[in-house]
Every structure is written in structure tokens, then in C-alpha cells.
Design brief:
mainly beta; eight-stranded mixed β-sheet; six-stranded antiparallel β-sheet; 7 helices; globular
Length: 395
């Protein structure tokens, strides 16, 4: 799970209080510098997850009851990303569905690629792109997953998967690196990583019957990563030990004043007054960076948000369902001469939040889930037709 997810786990209990307060006062995020657009009943559809697939529902609260489980073990979207814009190619969106598989979004087309061998008993997330190919990681949580101490698993080096590539043409996920490719310690799992486009910095946890040990390494491939497999990795990666301070420096929250200018322009209507934590990712890019907008003496709780920077558009989604969008979606004109638009997604029940999103073509997919501290209950996504929402109404 990436840093946004960890922050989200810590603040999830507070988020429900914020949403409850907003619901009572009928308040939403201020949008002084943006036109506000409401979602109508004819341009969206709700989906929820079961243990086997995704299904239509009329609204999240009417989906089947789910026993809340730790976020590492629950069926939920843990990470998302979109491919870069390329002439003649549809911009695709992808989502890692923990314990289930990979969702692919191509405009309004949705497909799920399941793999029991990879996802059934592992925590999956950290979606990035290498040469436009989705790459993600998996691990077993020692807090909630007893199978990590199974002797057959513990001593099987090939079972400790780490990085996987999703082949969208074959709809298959296959290993790029295993844990034994970067560590000689038995029963190690890579619990998190950061890739800056060149080097990979990893946090490893080695589990034994007596204690757990953390270590940190950096590795750099000498050939393109997608040409490597677990059987050949030892020849083509350079490994260097590092420390927790170095790893934390990659994952630290940066001041919002240092965020990309396009993001600050997008959110210029309220960023000086609202405390929030914002994860920013580039379309088809490496690991995201996190920025925090802290307000001294503020009585408001920090809201979580995700943002995407693409070539012709940028967008940010806050957990209350306010989506800010500027620019031009593929094949469309620039909205409001480049000025931001605020899309009001349908309000979620108390205890639910919007946690992530992707845009493919002119279709938005917003991730929702029911949260209670470190546990997740119901989860799914909202599909919104931006063609009808925006381009038939705004110039």
C-alpha cells in the first residue's frame, strides 16, 4: 500500500466525523474559482466488489453487507494509474484490486483480470508504469496473514513475489522480481517501495518465529526492467544497502508550496484555507509524491485527495467527492478556456469516502469504500460519463 493509503488508514476514523459534519451542515469544498457541476442520474453507474468480481448496484449503501476487514486483507481498490496520452491510442486506466486482480478501463469498457495464484492471499498495490506497462507489488502482511509462517511458504523462495507486470494484451500478471532477487534473508517481504524513474528504494520485512527485522535496499537495473525475470535478475540488477532515513526521504510529505504549478493552479480557489494531504501522480509515471497543506490553528481536519497530471488535463479528487478538472480530455476542446471545473460527485453515506480515481477517454472512475479506522467494509467504484456531464453543458 502506498503512503496515501497508510495516511488514509490513520485518518479514516476522523474522515467519518468530517463527512458527518458536512452532511449536517450541507457543506462541500469551496470552489470560488471554478464552475460547479452536479452529477445527474442519467450519467453515472455504481459498482461494488464481491469476493469474486464487481457488480452493478443502485447505490453503495444498498450493496450486500460486508464484514469489515483490515485494509491489507479486504477486497478494495488499493492503487490506480493511467497511461500517458499518445497520438492514436486511447488513454487507459488501471486499478489494482486487492485480493482479486487488475481492473482495466478503456473509456466505458471495463474488464477484470483475476489471478488466484497472485492475489488470493497477498496484499497488492503500488501501481506504477514502466514504458507504459503497469507494474505493481505484492506482499504478505505479518500482522493479519498467518500463512507467512507456514514452513512451506517460508522456505519457498519463488513464493515470495515482489514486482509484477500486468500484460494488458494477454490480461495476465507475471513476476518481474521476487524477494530473493534483492535479499538473501529467508522469509522476507517487500512491504513498500519508491521508484523515482531510475532507482528503486525498498523496505523489506524479514519474519521469523522470534522477531521481525526491517532492512532497506536500493537497486538499479542494468537493462530495461521489463526484460528481466526472477530467473535472470541476479545478472542485471545492482543492489546497494541503505537505511530507514533514506527510505523515509523518498516517502516524506512535502510542503504544498513545492507542488507542481499545474496542481496549485487547479486548486487555487481554496488551497490557502483548507488543510489537506494530496498525492500527485503523473500519467504513465513513477511513484507519486505526497504534498501537505497544513493550516496553522485550523479547526478543520485534513482531507485526503488524489491528483493526476496528464499531458492535456489535470484533475484532483477529494474524499468528499469534489473533483477538480482543467484542460481538455482526449479529442475534446479545452474546458472554460483552461479554467477549473468542479464536479460534485454523489454524496456518500457517513463512514464512506472517495479514495482514488482514473480517467480514460471521457469516462471517470471514482473509487469508494466504507472505512472504520484500519478496516474496510463495502468497496467499489463509480463510473461517470464526462461527455454528458461536461461537454454538453460547458463551453
Amino acid at each position: 500500500m502506498n503512503l496515501f493509503g497508510k495516511t488514509f488508514m490513520i485518518t479514516a476514523a476522523l474522515s467519518s466525523l468530517v463527512l458527518c459534519s458536512c452532511s449536517k451542515k450541507n457543506e462541500q469544498l469551496p470552489v470560488q474559482n471554478a464552475v460547479s457541476v452536479e452529477i445527474t442520474k442519467t450519467n453515472h453507474a455504481w459498482y461494488y466488489f464481491s469476493n469474486t468480481s464487481y457488480h452493478l448496484t443502485d447505490r453503495p449503501q444498498n450493496s450486500p453487507l460486508v464484514i469489515p476487514r483490515p485494509w491489507t486483507e479486504s477486497v478494495r481498490i488499493s492503487s490506480t494509474g493511467v497511461t500517458p496520452e499518445e497520438f492514436g491510442y486511447e488513454q487507459k486506466g488501471f486499478a489494482v484490486v486487492n485480493r482479486l486482480g487488475i481492473l482495466s478501463f478503456e473509456n466505458e469498457a471495463i474488464s477484470l483480470s483475476k489471478d488466484i495464484n497472485v492475489f488470493a492471499d497477498r496484499t497488492a498495490g503500488n501501481l506504477v508504469f514502466v514504458k507504459n506497462s503497469p507494474i505493481f507489488s505484492v506482499y504478505k502482511s505479518s500482522f493479519f496473514n498467518d500463512t507467512i509462517l507456514d514452513p512451506n511458504y517460508k522456505n519457498d523462495e519463488t513464493a515470495h513475489l515482489f514486482l509484477l507486470q500486468f500484460d494488458s494484451s494477454a490480461n495476465v500478471s507475471y513476476p518481474v522480481l521476487n524477494c530473493n532477487n534483492i535479499s538473501d534473508k529467508i522469509n522476507s517481504e517487500v512491504t513498500d517501495f519508491f521508484w523515482d524513474g531510475l532507482d528503486w528504494c525498498c523496505s523489506l520485512k524479514t519474519i521469523s518465529d522470534t522477531r521481525n527485522e526491517f532492512s532497506y535496499i536500493k537497486f538499479t537495473p542494468s537493462i530495461p526492467l521489463l526484460s528481466i525475470s526472477p530467473s535472470t535478475a541476479d545478472q542485471f540488477i545492482t543492489i546497494k544497502e541503505t537505511d530507514v532515513q533514506t527510505f523515509r526521504s523518498y516517502k516524506e510529505q512535502l510542503k504544498y508550496s513545492t507542488a507542481p504549478e499545474r496542481i496549485k493552479k487547479l486548486l487555487s480557489g481554496f488551497d490557502s484555507d483548507l488543510p489537506f494531504i494530496l498525492e500527485v501522480k503523473n500519467a504513465g509515471g513513477s511513484s507519486p509524491r505526497v504534498y501537505t497543506n497544513s493550516i496553522a490553528n485550523s479547526q478543520s481536519k485534513e482531507l485526503n485527495a488524489k491528483a493526476i497530471l496528464s499531458k492535456s488535463w489535470s484533475a484532483a479528487l477529494f474524499e468528499d467527492g469534489t473533483l477538480f478538472l482543467e484542460g481538455a480530455l482526449p479529442g475534446k476542446h479545452i474546458l472554460r478556456s483552461g479554467k477549473p471545473v468542479a464536479i460534485r460527485l454523489p454524496k456518500l453515506p457517513v463512514g464512506f469516502v472517495y479514495s482514488d480515481f482514473v480517467i480514460s477517454g471521457t469516462t471517470l472512475y471514482a473509487v469508494w469504500e466504507e472505512t472504520s479506522f484500519y478496516k474496510t467494509g463495502k468497496a467499489g467504484f463509480l463510473q461517470v460519463n464526462l461527455e454528458r456531464t461536461l461537454y454538453s453543458r460547458l463551453i
